[in-house]
Amino acid sequence: MVVPKIAPSLLSGDFAILASECQRMVDLGADYIHMDVMDGHFVPNLTIGAPVIKSLRPHTKAFLDCHLMVSHPEQWVEDFAKAGADMFTFHYEATDDSLALIKKIHELGMKAGIAIKPKTPVDAIMPLVSHVDMVLVMTVEPGFGGQKFMADCMPKVTTLRKAFPELDIEVDGGLDLTNIDQAAEAGANVIVAGTSIFKAPSPGEVIAAFKKSIQT
Ligand code: DX5
Ligand code: ZN
What we know:
Elements: E1 5-8, H1 18-27, E2 32-38, H2 50-56, E3 63-69, H3 77-83, E4 87-91, H4 98-107, E5 111-116, E6 134-138, H5 154-163, E7 168-172, H6 180-186, E8 190-193, H7 195-198, H8 203-215
Parallel strand pairs: 1-8, 2-3, 3-4, 4-5, 5-6, 6-7, 7-8
Helix pairs in contact: 2-3, 5-6, 6-8
The structure holds D-xylitol-5-phosphate and zinc ion (ZN).
Zinc ion binds at residues 9, 34, 36, 67, 172, 192.
């Protein structure tokens, strides 16, 4: 059986106190820390790169789940490996040679994830799934936190779960207590959430509720 993993997105945290935000989430039960890397080209927003991962790394043992919303992700694999990233998730739409990139990520000692945007059909990545450690099904158009969950992406999760019972399937974008059950029923087990965790009066309760929903 797949294990639930909750991955708070630090995009909704305070970048000025990144290390303590990270620790706070770990203390509240986070399994992964989701780091959103945006280049202002693949997506219309600009966030952080490998230097920030490098600065954060000595402050935490947490699993750093790096989501690269960048063009030419192959350009950054070495930098992220050196910086101490645990998982390098790239977008299928951003590269011409996913298999070569997956190989490079693994050679450099990181886990490899492949992400698809809402309009990308799941069939496009089916031949690649057995090569990766995780698939990320975006549930908003990548680029910004705080958007509305797109339930019409759930059939892609269902298809993946049917074909790959043991696969880590991550969903990212607009996840909250009103839609977690839909994601869990479809078969998602890795839950990214920014707004619904960081803006909650009791973020730990939200993390616990997400976990419970995946387990039941
Ligand atoms: C969006 C990012 C998400 C985002 C999620 O492009 O990939 O990880 O931070 O934030 P919420 O949960 O607010 O949608
Ligand atoms: Zn993300």
